[in-house]
Amino acid sequence: FDDEIAAAAGQVRERLAASDMARAAELLEQARGKYGADPRWKVLEQEVAKCIAYESGLKQAEQHRSRGDLDKAEERLTGLIREGSPDDRAGRLLGAIREQRFSERLKEADRAVGRGDFDTGLMLMKTLRAAAPPGWTAKIDAAYQQAEARKREELDRERQQREAEIASAAAAIRERLEQDEVPQAGAQLAAAKTKFPNEGVWFALQREIEARKKLLESQARAEQERLAIEAKRKAEEGEREKQRRIEQERIAQAERERLAV
User: Fold this and answer.
1) Phi-psi group of 199: left, alpha or beta (phi > 0 → left; psi -120 to 50 → alpha; rest → beta)
2) Is 15 helix (H, G, I), strand (E, B) or coil?
C-alpha cells in the first residue's frame, strides 16, 4: 500500500512539476476513493490545491499586467510570495513588472522633457531615482543629465530669442524717434513693456521719448514765436506802407490844388 500511494503521489507531483494542473487534479480525484483517508494523501491534496491557487494567481497577475494594471499585478504577486510560492516564477514576474514600471515611468519623464516640461520631467526622475533598484540608477542618472542639458539648451535658446526680439523692438522705437513720430514710439514702447516687462532698455527709451517730446515741443513753440514775430513785422510793414501811400496821396492832392490856383 505504501508503495502504491507513493507511486500515485509521484505521478501527481510529476504533473505539478510540469505545471499540468488539470491532469494533476484529475489523477488526485481518481485516487481519492482509494487513498483519500490517508493523511499523506490529504497533505498531497493541500499541495495540489496550493499549486492550483498559485498557477491561478500567476495567470491573474499576467492578465492585470496585459491590461496595464501594474499595481494590481504587483499586489497579486506580492501576496503569492508572502503565502509561500513553490518556485521562483512569481518572484521573476514581480521583478519584470517592477522593471516595466520603472521603464514606463522613465518614458513618462522623457515625454515630459520632450514637450518642454523640464521641471516635471526632472521631478519624476528624482522621484524614480529615490526608489530605483541598483540596476536602474545609472540609467536614471544618465537620463537626468541629458534632460538637464536639454533644459539649459532650451533656456539659452529662449534667452537669445528674447534678447533678439527686445533689440528689434528697441531699434524700431528709435527709428520712430528719428522720424519724430513720438506718439507711435510711445505706443510701441508700451506694447514692448507688456511683452517683456522690467527690461532696463525700456527705461532708457522712455527717457529718450520724453527728451524728444520736449525738444519737439520747444521747437514748436520757437516756430510759433517766429511766425508771430514775422506776422507782426509784416503787419507793421503793411501799416507803414499804408501810411506812406496816404502821405503820398496827400502831397499829390496838395500839388494839384496848388496848380489849380
Assistant:
1) beta
2) helix
Could you tell me the CA-to-CA distances from 24 to 11, 16, 17, 45, 125 in Å, in that order?
Answer: 8, 6, 10, 10, 48
Output the tens digit of pLDDT for each of the chain's 261 residues. 477 777 877 787 778 777 777 787 778 777 776 776 677 777 777 777 888 888 889 999 999 999 989 899 999 999 989 888 888 889 999 989 988 888 888 999 999 999 999 999 999 999 988 888 888 889 899 999 999 999 999 999 999 999 999 999 999 999 999 999 999 999 999 999 999 999 999 999 999 999 999 999 999 999 999 999 999 999 999 999 999 999 999 999 998 988 887
pTM for the whole structure: 0.55
Q: Are 24 and 12 in contact (CB under 8 A)?
A: yes
Please measure the distance between the N-terminal and C-terminal CA atoms of the chain and give it in whole angstroms: 188
Q: How many CA atoms lie within 13 A of 95 on its CB side?
A: 9
Cell of 164: 533678439
Q: How far apart are CA 35 and CA 133, in angstroms?
A: 49
Question: CB–CB of 196/162 below 8 Å?
Answer: yes
**Cα 184–chain centre separation:** 36
What Rg, from alpha-carbon coordinates, does the chain have? 50
Alpha-carbon distance of 192 to 199, in angstroms, equals 9
- Please name the amino acid found at residue 226: R
**Is 184:209 a contact under the CB 8 Å cutoff?**
no
Give the DSSP H or E segment for 115.
none
